[in-house]
Amino acid sequence: MHLLERQTQLDELARCFQEARKGCGKLLLISAEAGLGKSSLVERFVSEHRRDARTFWGACDGLSTPRALAPVHEIAAQIAQSGSPLTRDGEFGDHLFRILLEELARPERVSLVVLEDLHWADAATLDFVRFIGRRIQRTSALFIATYREDELSPSHPLRLALGELTGHHVVRLRLVPLSPAAVELLSRDSGRNASLLYRITGGNPFFVREVLASPGELVPQSVRDAVVSRLLRCSPETRELAELVAISPGRTEGWLIESVLGARQPAVDEAGARGLLEVQTDSIGFRHELARRAVLEAIQPERVRALHAQVLPILAQHGTDPARLTHHASLARLGDAVLEYAPLAAKEAARLGAHREAAAHLGRALQYASAVTPQLRADLLERHAVESSLANQTREAIASASAALALRRQAADLEAEARVLSLLSQEYRSIGEKANADECVSGAIRILENLPHGSALAMAYSWRSLLAVNRGWDREALEFGQRALALAREIGDRAAEAHALCNIGGAVLRRARHLLAQRLYPRLLHALRARPGRVGSSGAHGERAAARL
């Protein structure tokens, strides 16, 4: 299909590319509703400039919980394959980001980087986009990121990230539906009613294409109807192939298809010829996510669960990422498998700084944790509380920590009880529940003082000091700050020592200001009284100063 009414966007892409060639890199954000042609636009542009640039491509997957940094590692792997020396496997976070930035800054040839479907990105990948977006102007790279604006809720993490990306080096493009004239041009040889086609499709290029490819003269009323009508024209073997591919976001590996269905080359050929699936050397996928979802929605739920259960052990044998295994285990409703893979996926996500995703994985495990031992359930709850806290999901953190606390008390695990109380204190403070915060940290201190003294007690003392600083209780702040400092130095805990010193410093500074104010106040009053009748701006300023003191 021809790319209609997108020349303005192609021209802007070309302009940004030329700027990047001059050493002024650009971050170009392309937004649109699903089906308006973001990928088609980018693919056309990349194909026109592939010879002029090093091209790297990454994509976020629509898994139930995204894999942390998956598209970033995908890009890094391509850079390594291009002959550039990257670091050892397993690099992550800021160090990996800086290595990739250095690669993009190489002046000998412009880099063209594409990151698709940011609306599915994990927290760590969004951190990468922020990192690159603030520094791209110092590189010879054009970094293109696409996302669906109709997928973004008001609180979606991508909205927050986009709000932080500003400056002349950040360019935004928004795609709009095709005009009635463009739809008429596309449907000219189909015998379809162009006006009716435009009314039903709203000018969505993907929907227009699916309708024109559907059989008969009637216009399907939805994307699902159009895609399913095409599917029904295929052989049973091809329909089975499409169903298997539909359960996995992104692309499905050829070895997985062969393991489940056996050799299906005729079905693969038919699916490609009918335009239902896009066939590559080692994988198969739908041409658009909307088509995949349409096929998936047409499959009976029992059949969907059976397919997820069928691919799970095969993927596990191939050492597949735990996040992907969790996705299939969850949709197959295999509780034991979720309990096995979700904590592993959470651990990896947390290691990469994707705490929102780590909390989601642990939350999924907790759905099946009613029959596990109290010890394991308490561990999952506590881990979920910690990751929720790091993801700023305070209410969820409090709920899980409270449930974990009850289990720790039942088990008489004093050390764990104190640890959870300290966590609860932090969460209560973050929502302004000062009394609960004080009560929890005091309870933690009472327990820890009767156990061998260590880092947990030092941090509890320091946390009690911080709560006192926040409430203006300087004497208590100094008392517990000094306790924390002494213990931290005794056991060599540098983190607790630094935390305690900050709290002590805050209390000392406020007391110093208070003492200074006490000295200045009488002198200011004396100065004001010595000038009776003095009015105007200077007099008013003096009165305000006295009030502040």
Structural notes for this entry:
Helix content is 63%, strand content 7%. The protein has 549 residues and is of the alpha/beta class. Among the domains are: 168 residues, 3-Layer(aba) Sandwich (Rossmann fold), CATH 3.40.50.300; 127 residues, Orthogonal Bundle (Arc Repressor Mutant, subunit A); 30 residues. A 5-stranded parallel beta sheet has the order 2-3-4-1-5, with helices on both faces. Strands 6-8-7 form a 3-stranded antiparallel beta sheet. Strand 7 and strand 8 form a beta hairpin. Helix 18 packs antiparallel against helix 19. The C terminus is likely disordered.
Number of helices: 26
Indicate the structural class.
alpha/beta
Give the overall shape. Answer: globular
- CATH level 1 class label of the domain at 7-174: Alpha Beta
Q: Could you tell me the mean pLDDT? A: 90
Pick out the low-confidence regions.
533-549
Provide the CATH topology of the domain at 7-174.
Answer: Rossmann fold
> Largest sheet, described in full?
5 strands, parallel
The helix content is 55-70%
Strand percentage, roughly? 5-15%
The CATH architecture designation of the domain at 7-174 is 3-Layer(aba) Sandwich
SSE blueprint:
Layout (H helix, E strand, L loop, with lengths): L6 H15 L4 E7 L5 H12 L4 E6 L10 H12 L11 H12 L6 E6 L6 H11 L7 E8 L8 H8 L5 E5 L5 H7 L7 H8 L3 H9 L9 H10 L3 H11 L5 E2 H8 L3 H9 L3 E3 L3 E4 L2 H10 L2 H17 L4 H10 L3 H17 L3 H12 L7 H17 L3 H17 L3 H17 L3 H15 L6 H16 L3 H18 L2 H36 L7 H12 L1
Helix pairs in contact: 4-5, 5-6, 9-10, 10-14, 11-13, 11-14, 15-16, 16-17, 17-18, 18-19, 19-20, 20-21, 21-22, 21-23, 22-23, 23-24, 23-25, 24-25, 25-26
